[in-house]
């Protein structure tokens, strides 16, 4: 692998494109969620008693994997003393799986229900959902770049985790505490 | 590590979303057919006052429903001549209509009670509750992004429903329970659940249940029986029970 020749890192300039792309993704999702007429129906994973339960559990799965993400990232950055060649693949694949788990959830939310601002919980959830995919996109695009400030990945990763935690609290946690822990 | 890995991750997510979109667009409609004969409800002791059972059923609500029915039948049938002989209002005092929205395939149900009217439109995916008035053999009902206007007479309500940018015509004949309009509400730990169902004499049925900004096609409903929604028992009621809540 050859190292791309980049100008010596000067601040956060190389971050511009990832951040712009992420911002575009977040705005696009929000505009789509608001502009299109909610279909009231979306195909999802079978096996649950309904779409709410499906989304609650997929989001919970993603949130648990997100905890793995934080721990494995801390290991990669030497913040916890776990070493091994398996840490990096664990971080990569737990992240990929978590992301894939969120896609049917977000698809159902956006396609079937759309972005809504009627109630605080729903408003926060809608905004966080758009923000989550924006930051995730920014992080994915920032990953291969060289010469980024050292704080880039921890900050972006931390924002992704925080957004997902907020999404879980405003959806799955609400579902489990309102209707009970059911599949 | 492949430096294109993150791009593949993003692409995989996009492809998955596109696949779900394609599957959702081509998915079957949400109307269901229930056996019309099977809609005879099992004995439901816990029926709420408005949820009167079918006429042939004899249970604790029989007395109430008989009284209610006779009163309302009287007012409907023996329409007293108004003070203005030139304009006798033939608008039904109590009538239930249900039919298909042509071109949409969803169902429309209208309930008229003493000049007030409520309606529900649902195709399993989109829905709207409407309220309005009935006068001069016409009902006009408004709901969120929706409007129904219909003429009453000849045993049917004939008109159109506007939903968003779309307009569908419908002819909804008079129906008798267990066919007609049903609505169930419940509050669970601060979250309000609202369900709506329309049952046709043919056994065709459609409905939706919503909670906290989210909604989904309703579980199958047999008139007289409760409906389980994620463990919450919903008790769909007839228009007499929810008219005041919906159209004060």
**Could you describe the largest sheet of chain A, including whether it forms a barrel?**
none
Radius of gyration of chain B, CA atoms, in whole angstroms: 21 Å
Order of helices and strands of chain B: HEHEEEEEEEEEEEEEEH
Q: What percentage of the residues of chain A does DSSP assign to strands (E)? A: under 5%
Overall domain count of chain A: 1
Category by helix and strand content of chain B: alpha+beta
Keywords (chain A): Membrane, Transmembrane, Transmembrane helix
Organism (chain A): Microbispora corallina
Pfam family, one (chain A): DUF6529
Protein name (chain A): Integral membrane protein
Can you offer a commentary on this structure?
The complex is a heterodimer of chains A (183) and B (248). Chain A is an all-alpha fold and 183 residues long. Chain A contains six helices and no strands. In chain B, 18% of the residues lie in helices and 40% in strands. In chain B, the strands form three sheets. An eight-stranded antiparallel barrel of chain B has the order 2-3-4-5-6-7-8-9. In chain B, strands 1, 10, 11, 12 and 13 form a five-stranded antiparallel sheet that branches. In chain B, strand 7 and strand 8 form a beta hairpin. Chain B is elongated.
Short description:
With 183 residues, chain A is mainly alpha-helical.
Features:
heterodimer, A: 183 residues, mainly alpha, 6 helices, 67% helix, 0% strand, globular, B: 248 residues, alpha+beta, eight-stranded antiparallel barrel, 3 helices, 18% helix, 40% strand, elongated, transmembrane helix (chain A), membrane (chain A), DUF6529 (chain A), Integral membrane protein (chain A)
